[in-house]
Design a protein that fits this description.
heterodimer; A: seven-stranded mixed beta sheet; four-stranded antiparallel beta sheet; B: mainly beta; Immunoglobulin-like; six-stranded mixed beta sheet; 11 strands
């Protein structure tokens, strides 16, 4: 158990809908990273937050957004969902702002029908 | 741009043998490398890391070797066990600027251990 929690574990929704994925980092960690994992793209970095502020952006679509709250949990919002958004979404956390050893949560499997 | 790739997408070994998983990277400025293990249905699990000022680092049954001259990283697993069956990812972190804040992952190697 990495200490990172994610909810929900599974999510099934329809195209055009909006969903919110939640992540709680390890106790004491200030950084949260979001990744998308699909069969053909591997693990793709989406976005990083450090202590409530956006720190780095990767291949995140404009339809996706994230935020980190004062209690350091983070939410990833996915809107206008498309079939191609079906994937595993992972969050990871680290104590500092740099991308050193990241501890991953169990992931949320999103299926868009 | 940055890229981290794997030489072999699949590797099959016999239980008890040693396994070697290879990874090539292209960013010569990368200063930190990590190996993750991902079992089916689970998130990536940290195995071992190495900084660019080192050539070798050992853990429990695992060794990571870094060859900066040819930009190559390898993970050696000694006495491979069935529980080692998983997908293994290498990841790198750039050494400056925005690349300091993200990991770039390779596509993964599937290791299968035959009893």
């Amino acid at each position: 158990d990495s200490g990172v929690t994610q909810t929900p574990k599974h999510l099934i929704t329809a195209t055009g809908q909006r969903v919110t994925l939640r992540c709680s980092p390890r106790s004491g960690d200030l950084s949260v990273y979001w990744y998308q994992q699909s069969l053909d793209q591997g693990l793709q970095f989406l976005i990083q937050y450090y202590n409530g502020e956006e720190r780095a952006k990767g291949n995140i679509l404009e339809r996706f957004s994230a935020q980190q709250f004062p209690d350091l949990h983070s939410e990833l919002n996915l809107s206008s969902l498309e079939l191609g958004d079906s994937a595993l979404y992972f969050c990871a956390s680290t104590s500092g702002s740099r991308a050193d050893t990241q501890y991953f949560g169990p992931g949320t499997r999103l299926t868009v029908l | 741009g940055e890229s981290v790739g794997l030489h072999l997408p699949t590797l099959s070994v016999q239980e008890g043998d040693n396994s070697i998983i290879n990874c090539a990277y292209s960013n010569s400025a990368s200063d930190y490398f990590i190996w993750y293990k991902q079992e089916s249905g689970k998130g990536p699990q940290f195995i071992i890391d190495i900084r660019s000022n080192m050539d070798k680092r050992q853990g429990q049954r695992v060794t990571v070797l870094l060859n900066k001259t040819v930009k190559h990283l390898s993970l050696q697993i000694a006495a491979t066990q069935p529980g080692d069956s998983a997908v293994y990812f290498c990841a790198e972190k750039g050494g400056s600027g925005g690349s300091n804040y993200k990991l770039t992952f390779g596509k993964g190697t599937l290791l299968t251990v035959n009893p």
